[in-house]
């Protein structure tokens, strides 16, 4: 059963995250690969709205479990993209693995 009771509250939190600069876009060159993160309460979270996917606990337990539709971080990404409220960082392809390692370290330490 999908719970929509917290949707309004999460929507407000998503706007707050977007407006406070918590959404980051990393563009790697020369490949043009993109990686998006949202700063959560436990560090940077990997988000991908095309899948959709977020590395937060809410997504893993509530969204994948069918009890919720999305998480606040994916909502923040949607708001930030629509309003141009994200920070963009340009990195080399060689830095991709290192950044992903930092994000995955944050993820594993929050479990």
Structural write-up:
- The longest helix is centred in the last third of the chain and has 14 residues.
- The protein is globular and about 40 Å long.
- The chain has 111 residues and is α+β, with helices and mostly antiparallel strands.
- The chain has a five-stranded mixed beta sheet.
- It has one domain.
- Helix 1 packs across helix 3.
- It contains four helices and five strands.
- The relative contact order is 0.23.
- The two termini are 25 Å apart.
Q: What is the residue-averaged pLDDT?
A: 90
Q: How many strands in all?
A: 5
Radius of gyration: 14 Å
Identify low-pLDDT runs.
none
Helix/strand-derived category reads alpha+beta
Strand content: 25-35%
Summed up, the helix count is 4
Number of structurally distinct domains: 1
What is the ordering of alpha helices and beta strands?
HEEEEHHEH
User: Strand sequence of the main sheet, in spatial order?
Assistant: 4-3-2-1-5
Question: What is the 3D shape?
Answer: globular
What is the percent of helical residues? Answer: 40-55%
Distance between the ends: 25 Å
């Amino acid at each position: 059963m999908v719970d929509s009771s917290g949707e309004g509250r999460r929507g407000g939190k998503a706007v707050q995250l977007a407006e406070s600069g918590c959404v980051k876009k990393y563009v790697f060159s020369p490949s043009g690969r993109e990686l998006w993160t949202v700063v959560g309460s436990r560090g940077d979270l990997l988000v991908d709205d095309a899948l959709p996917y977020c590395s937060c606990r809410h997504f893993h337990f509530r969204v994948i479990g069918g009890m919720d539709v999305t998480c606040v971080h994916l909502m923040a990404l949607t708001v930030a993209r629509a309003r141009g409220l994200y920070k963009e960082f340009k990195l080399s392809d060689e830095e991709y693995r290192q950044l992903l390692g930092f994000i995955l370290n944050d993820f594993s330490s929050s479990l």
